[in-house]
Amino acid sequence: DQQVKQNSPSLSVQEGRISILNCDYTNSMFDYFLWYKKYPAEGPTFLISISSIKDKNEDGRFTVFLNKSAKHLSLHIVPSQPGDSAVYFCAAISNQAGTALIFGKGTTLSVSS
Amino acid sequence: DGGITQSPKYLFRKEGQNVTLSCEQNLNHDAMYWYRQDPGQGLRLIYYSQIVNDFQKGDIAEGYSVSREKKESFPLTVTSAQKNPTAFYLCATRPAGRSGANVLTFGAGSRLTVL
User: Fold this and answer.
1) Residue A28: which of A111, A94, A80 has the closest Cα?
2) Residue A110 pLDDT greater than 70, yes or no
3) How near does any CA of chain A get to the CA of B43, in Å?
4) Contact between B106 and A45 using a beta-carbon 8 Å cutoff
């Protein structure tokens, strides 16, 4: 059973507009969440993260929002740029349980100019 | 040049052959991981090791084996028992301790194709 779900396989956005990528999780033990960006034939690179004690974390054009009661997080990219076109993975971990990162299936973002 | 080195980048294997993928790191990270990426499947955990001479199975360990004899190295062997080995394999590391301990650093990956 998937513990981290990214229900939208793809998203298309125009340059300059906002991109919103969504992620849901089922395990209430998760206490840290991360977003990774991946280009084809490369390893994922870390983008931004958020602890479960916060509801928002911002880094430049990237903001992650966490809604613990809904077990939902989202990544906002504004303004979107063509170079943002990539696969975005949501990941979660339970530090208490000491397990490895669990990844979602990814959302492919396409930003058109 | 610090980081994670995965080799080979591309590998072709005949059915029934074992193959070993190399992962070497000079980040002095304690934990090392192997993930597999398939189209539409995201990243799935094969094996991980939090300390030398110890490792745990991930979600899809069947048909794979690992060793962790040195802190710097975590090779993955894809055996003939793995039914569908064609995939993109990613090695990752994580430091111990609280600072940045949740962030995995990934290598560039190895593409294995079974002919």
Assistant:
1) A94
2) yes
3) 6
4) yes
Q: Could you read off the pLDDT of A41-77 as tens digits, one per residue?
A: 899 999 999 999 999 999 999 999 999 999 999 999 9
pLDDT band at A21 (very low <50, low <70, confident <90, very high): very high
Q: Does A90 touch chain B (CB under 8 A)?
A: no
Chain-centre distance for alpha carbon B3: 14
Asked if the C-beta of A45 comes within 8 angstroms of chain B's C-beta atoms, the answer is yes
Q: Do B43 and A9 touch (CB under 8 A)?
A: no
Whether residue B42 and residue A6 make contact (CB cut-off 8 A), yes or no, is yes
Tokens of A60: 């430049």
Nearest of A90, A111, A94, A92 to residue A102 by alpha carbon:
A92
User: What percent of chain B is helix, strand and coil (3-state, nearest 5)?
Assistant: 0, 50, 50
Those residues of chain B that have pLDDT short of 50 are none
